[in-house]
Amino acid sequence: MAGMEMRALRKSYGGLEVLHDIDLTIDDGEFVVLVGPSGCGKSTLLRMIAGLEPITGGEFRIGGRRMNEVPPRDRDIAMVFQSYALYPHMSVGRNMGFSMEIRRRPAAERAGPVAAAARTLGLDRLLERFPKALSGGQRQRVAMGRAIVRDPQAFLFDEPLSNLDAALRVEMRLEIARLHQRLGTTTVYVTHDQVEAMTLADRIVVMNGGVIQQVGNPLELYDRPANRFVAQFIGSPT
Ligand code: ADP
Ligand code: MG
Q1: Other Cβ atoms closer than 10 A to 129
Q2: Distance from the alpha carbon of residue 111 to the mean position of ligand 2, in angstroms
Q3: pTM
Q4: Residues measured by CB to lie within 5 Å of ligand 2, the ion
Q5: Which member of 25, 113, 140, 203 has the lowest number of beta carbons within 10 Å of its beta carbon?
């Protein structure tokens, strides 16, 4: 079970609170999309889930286990960023297998998972290449491949497609949907793209000013927005 529970989660930077009493339960296998204006706290919430930002208050559990103080390396979570953060001096294959390399898995054991992820993402023929010889879309695939190889309890995506052109964005969105259908891994996905949110999400979380405005499936939010902010953000008439 890799469901997540957030109870009255709070986050302050210095003295300033940027997330206030976040209550959210994410089911095992669910695809949850966080939306909201720039600065509302989406990335901060993802980073807290990943363990990259200390939690200031409240409770965070994964699969029932309290995670507040668990360091990132002991969380079974893979994060994909919009800046792909590939290692430039490593080949595609080594980039994808690096999480196993740092856990001292021998090369013979790393090859299988890397090859499987490469097949899934159409990267088979690029394994020997270096990141600088890849297109933006290919780099994004490698970043996703690196996450898949870990076979984590959960995927976190922070606006993974915002650097890609429109056509590639559509292609990668479909790829992510297929991947989730196949793997069924719990996913928290941040985007400011309404189409991505509406098409990928089991449920959408609308945030504003560090507060959750509404949680619901795409149709619910569209048909019954809780307030004017949600209505305007989701794009349904008020
Ligand atoms: P979003 O991803 O929704 O655009 P962020 O989570 O990046 O929002 O930011 C939420 C708020 O926290 C913003 O007001 C931002 O300025 C502030 N913030 C984010 N990171 C830091 C940090 N490292 N130090 C201080 N303030 C930060
Ligand atoms: Mg952000």
Answers
A1: 15
A2: 34
A3: 0.93
A4: 43
A5: 25
